[in-house]
Write a structure and sequence with these properties.
ATP binding, EC 6.1.1.19, alpha/beta, ligase, Isoleucyl-tRNA Synthetase, Domain 1, Rossmann fold, Gyrase A, domain 2, 21 helices, 5-stranded parallel β-sheet, 10% strand, 579 residues, 14 strands, 4 domains
Length: 579
């Protein structure tokens, strides 16, 4: 809100002193004792002018015009120029929060940009587990932030819905989902007698858990029995040939997976603008690679395999097509990247994928540049740290090493229901606890979900932010009507601490978006909630010493509620008016 004004004031001072263009930054000091803004302009200049940064800082500070919103400018070691804001300017910023409402914090910082982000992409042979959760929560929060900054965002995912893994699931269904174990495990027989297999209507467990079990059994059977391996491999070949019975079985098993996964995605309020099905483009990748061979971008080995040529990128080479002519994941990814580029024309493309895929993505980006699909700088891998459950013994023993998203939310919800009987509120609080626990830490930081801390109404948690918002709303209902023209009076320290923080929201959102770090928003909101609750516990709002004071404190409450609401919505957390 004020950053551009402060930056311009420093630039004017530098021009006045004939210092020319200086590449300086304006940011907030970690300690508010050192002002509301600080710049390193003098320290940058000292390197080129070979002068004392403290002396230069004082000269620049003396040249800054003291006018609203600036209250004063001071110099601190080793050469920082610190700026304080006027109280009336802070009060005016507070009113702007209320006037702008749900639009508060929005900017045009990303106007004209189109960014595409691939996130989550669960395979349709498993229920969604903890590995998908951090990916999803991060991808959705970051894309929300980008949109708030004026960026056109396309959220997409890839559905790897074909190949050997899906064929194992199909075999698992044919062999292990029969109502009578004596029924023939044959796809042609199945097509005519589907009622002899378990259907969606017959299920007593979630369909994605059912799929999980069948995939495990089908995979084990594939490994143990040569006959089963032959059947599975034949399924892959027949699928590619368009065998109607195989295609019908394929659609049937995928429906189980999609139904279950969609239940999970609905709980997380997750979405995609485009879902790419591998079955639609799997041949395209092979064609692109073969074209690359003709252009001598890639090389064909003596055994028929096709190898990349990434020497100039200082990357190890990778096989693009196997010697038997079959494609690999990277082959499909080349095609998909081209499709994304041609369909949406994004300025930047992002992949939210775990760190173990780092090398593969670097290779993909280099190959796409070689093929003219896009430039390396247009492609970004957003990796993230791993997550585990603190006190994992609390998860049901039948899960083994797999932690399902829904079971985690259900366990959190069970804890919340000990404090409230409202199912809907308990669900929203549980989801907020899970999401915030991942978003409050840096993207690449490994973290552990702690039930006690994550569900606390008094600490650094999603429920604490929801609780603070509900507290604000409760106060506002009792005030009923607010007067934005109540007049500004001298602030007490707790009021001042809120006003010196709340105006930073838009800047924090921008920083979070351009640095791919939603945790900046989470940290900002937690600090705001702490400051408001400190104010609330120290001063009466409804029984203030005068009507004007009551109104002003009501405005602080309203601005706090609005900022928390706007912020937690970016994180994918639902604000609650009561708890």
């Amino acid at each position: 809100m004020f950053a551009s004004i402060i930056e311009k004031s420093i630039e004017n001072a530098l021009n006045k002193l004939n210092f020319g263009v200086v590449d300086f930054v304006v940011e907030h000091p970690e300690n508010e004792e050192f002002g509301d803004y600080s710049t390193n302009a003098a320290m940058v200049l000292s390197k080129t002018l070979k002068k004392s940064p403290m002396e230069l800082a004082q000269v620049i500070a003396n040249s800054v015009k003291i006018r609203p919103p600036i209250l004063k400018v001071e110099v601190r070691n080793p050469g920082f120029i610190n700026v304080w804001l006027r109280e009336e300017s802070l009060a005016e910023a507070l009113i702007k929060v209320i006037i702008q409402g749900d639009e508060y914090g929005k900017s045009k910082a990303g106007k004209g940009k189109t960014w595409l982000i691939e996130h989550t992409s669960p395979n349709p042979n498993k229920a969604m587990h903890l590995g998908h959760l951090r990916n999803n929560v991060f991808g959705m929060a970051l894309s929300n932030i980008w949109e708030f900054m004026g960026i056109k965002v396309i959220r997409d995912c890839i559905d790897n819905n074909r190949g050997i893994a899906i064929a194992k699931l199909m075999w698992g269904y044919l062999k292990f989902a029969k109502k009578d174990e004596n029924t023939l495990s044959d796809v042609t027989y199945w097509r005519k007698h589907k009622n002899e297999w378990i259907t969606l209507k017959d299920l007593k467990i979630r369909p994605d858990r059912f799929v999980d079990d069948l995939y495990f059994k089908g995979s084990r059977d594939f490994e143990e029995f040569e006959e089963s391996e032959d059947i599975v491999r034949a399924m892959v070949a027949k699928w590619e040939q368009g065998d109607m019975s195989i295609l019908e079985l394929w659609k049937t098993v995928l429906e189980f997976a999609y139904k279950g996964q969609n239940l999970t995605l609905k709980r997380l309020n997750s979405k995609w603008d485009k879902v790419w099905r591998e079955s639609d483009h799997y041949k395209m990748g092979k064609e692109l690679v073969l074209r690359g061979v003709k252009k001598r971008v890639f090389k064909k080995l003596d055994d028929g395999a096709i190898l990349s040529n990434l020497k100039k990128y200082h990357l190890p080479d990778t096989i693009l097509i196997k010697r038997d002519g079959t494609s690999l994941y990277i082959t499909q990814d080349i095609a998909l990247t081209k499709l994304k580029k041609e369909t949406f024309s994004p300025d930047k493309m992002f992949w939210v994928i775990g760190p173990e895929q780092g090398l593969a993505l670097k290779q993909l980006f280099a190959i796409c540049e070689q093929l003219g699909i896009g430039k390396m700088e247009e492609f970004t891998h957003l990796s993230y740290g791993y997550m585990r459950i603190k006190g994992g013994a609390r998860m049901s023993s039948r899960l083994g090493n797999v932690v399902y998203i829904d079971e985690l939310i259900d366990l959190a919800k069970g804890e919340v229901l000990k404090k409230t009987s409202d199912e809907a509120i308990a669900e929203k609080v549980a989801v907020s606890a899970v999401k915030y626990s991942m978003l409050k830490v840096g993207r690449t930081t490994n973290t552990a979900f702690d039930f006690e801390k994550s569900l606390s109404f008094e600490g650094d948690s999603g429920p604490y932010l929801q609780y603070t918002y509900a507290r604000c709303e409760s106060v506002l209902k009792k005030i009923k009507k607010l007067d934005k023209d109540c007049g500004v009076m001298k602030f007490n320290e707790e009021e001042r601490r809120i006003l010196r923080h709340i105006y930073k929201f838009s800047e924090v959102v921008g920083k979070a978006g351009f640095e791919y770090s939603p945790n900046f928003v989470a940290l900002f909101l937690f600090e705001l909630a702490k400051r408001f609750n400190g104010f609330y516990n120290s001063h009466s709002i409804l029984e203030a010493s005068s009507e004007n004071k009551k109104q002003f404190r009501g405005l602080i409450t309203k601005a706090t509620a609005q900022t928390i609401k706007n912020g937690i919505l970016l994180l994918g957390i639902e604000p609650l008016e009561r708890m």
